[in-house]
Amino acid sequence: MNEKITKIKNEVAKVVIGQEKMIDGLLIGLLCEGHILIEGIPGLAKTTTVNALAQALGLNFKRVQFTPDLLPSDILGAEIYDPAQNQFKIKHGPVFTNLLLADEINRAPAKVQSALLEVMQEKQVTIGDESFKLDPPFFVMATQNPVEQEGVYQLPEAQLDRFMMKLVVGYNTKEEELEIARRISSKSNASINAVISLAELEELKKEVASVHMDEEIERYMIELVSATRDPSAYGLSDIADYIQFGASPRVSIDIFKAVKAMAFLRGKDYVSPVDIAYIIKEIMRHRIILSYEAEAEGVTADQLIDKIVQAVAIP
Q1: Residue 188 — very low, low, confident or very high, per pLDDT cuts 50/70/90?
Q2: Which residues of 100-127 are buried (b: 16+ CB within 10 A; e: fewer)?
């Protein structure tokens, strides 16, 4: 593994026990300039991990707690009147940062969630009749709680599609939880140091982009995406009724970038089918729109992805 990546992981490990897959997913998002959605019940260190990562990278970090009464201007900013100057001026919101944590994003209604659509896609914010480009890098890390049904609002499909990956976070092992309880009860958490500069982060991105990928691997990934749109063409007629809409073209773009980063994190300079298998659910699970039949029968996107991976021939 790259020395700089090891340093980042070591810093995050000072406050986060376990959750390797979540940390890898966040690093892939940072290396590929992609936004990440993290889903899990409360108390699984989602917010702590994002905060720790921002500190280890030395990035500007802002956190917005999404609530039902939040307004778009609370995130983006607004035009406010300055009586002293007798004119309106722009007040920037917390979105003007490098790493924005949208905590419990599904607690706010659609008009607030959609305030992030422009900035996630275009890396710019429009306030009044002015548009402002954000200084790179810019990432949105959003968390959501899948358990509560009251007072939460599902993310619209257009917003979900802007997230490169959806990470589903589970419980720690018993040994990890014991270590967490010991560490917190004894207040022995160490401070996190910035171990990488922005220039070094840009170098890492260039190294990721240079990871080799065979044409056969590229075509294999396109076949996987295509199978979500037309399962019957791949001998998957039994799941065709479960998929209302398959993966969008953004999935093809994101999977090409993410598998290179996955290979890089595993210390390789080329992509193999194993890298694709490791990460494909995270890239696709939130972008396959299930039909009513699938929801009625309890069929999940992860189950459909498993069937697609089994059906499409590996190069």
Answers
A1: low
A2: bbbbbbbbbeeebbebbeebbeeeebeb
